[in-house]
Design goal:
Shape: elongated
Number of strands: 5
Helix content: 55-70%
Number of domains: 2
Largest sheet: 3 strands, mixed
Structural class: alpha+beta
Radius of gyration: 36 Å
Number of helices: 7
Strand order of the largest sheet: 3-4-5
CATH topology of the largest domain: Alpha-Beta Plaits
């Protein structure tokens, strides 16, 4: 939300909060009278209890304050503690961890696509991955290789304890490298001259010689 929208929303919420406070005080103190529209809500002739009106206005006030706080609330960055740090409190964001894992794992041959999700725990982190593999690879071996690389990059390079690593294969596809090789082979194939065209050329040359 841009600054202008924030200013407008905050002004509206402040107005509602102030209006609620004034209304709650005026119900019991009766310092002034409202307009005809307000009197239809607050006058006793409609058999509306003062306590019911007070609770309703209190609810409006609470919602206004809550919305105002949420407007300025900044989502806390999720981090994981580095277990190897003994002299201080060192942390790495979960987004950084996921990025490091993806950058290393994607280099594995036969892996076509990978999505990484990190779940922080008190004792370390849990790595959840969804991957698409080349349909020509040995799936069990390739899955174990991906798990080992993901766990290794986190524990060795980042110094974060890995509690568990989960890998789910969500699809098997034709490898991108194989597609590129096939495309290059098609482009490199020479254009063959048709035999009929060759015969026509030879006949024309014989006629000219005669």
């Amino acid at each position: 939300m841009n600054i202008f929208n924030k200013i407008v929303v905050v002004l509206i919420l402040i107005f509602l909060a102030c209006l609620s406070i004034i209304s709650m005080v005026n119900i019991f103190a009766e310092y002034f009278k409202w307009s005809d529209l307000a009197l239809r809500i607050f006058t006793p002739e409609y058999n509306i209890s003062k306590f019911v009106v007070f609770l309703a206005l209190l609810g409006i006030f609470a919602v206004s304050i809550l919305l105002m706080l949420l407007e300025f609330y900044r989502k806390r960055t999720k981090v994981a503690n580095i277990s190897s740090s003994k002299t201080g409190n060192a942390m790495v964001t979960l987004e950084t961890i996921a990025g490091q894992i993806k950058n290393e794992v994607i280099k594995i041959d036969g892996l076509e696509e990978i999505k990484v999700n990190i779940i922080p725990k008190t004792a370390g982190i849990i790595i959840n991955m969804n991957a698409k593999l080349n349909d020509n690879v040995n799936i069990p071996e390739k899955m174990q290789e991906i798990i080992n690389v993901a766990s290794g990059i986190v524990s060795d390079k980042l110094g974060i304890k890995v509690i568990k690593t989960n890998l789910t294969i969500i699809g098997l596809v034709e490898g991108k490298k194989e597609k590129e090789v096939k495309k290059k082979e098609i482009e490199k194939k020479p254009v063959k001259t048709k035999p009929e065209e060759a015969e026509d050329i030879s006949e024309t040359s014989d006629d000219n010689s005669s």
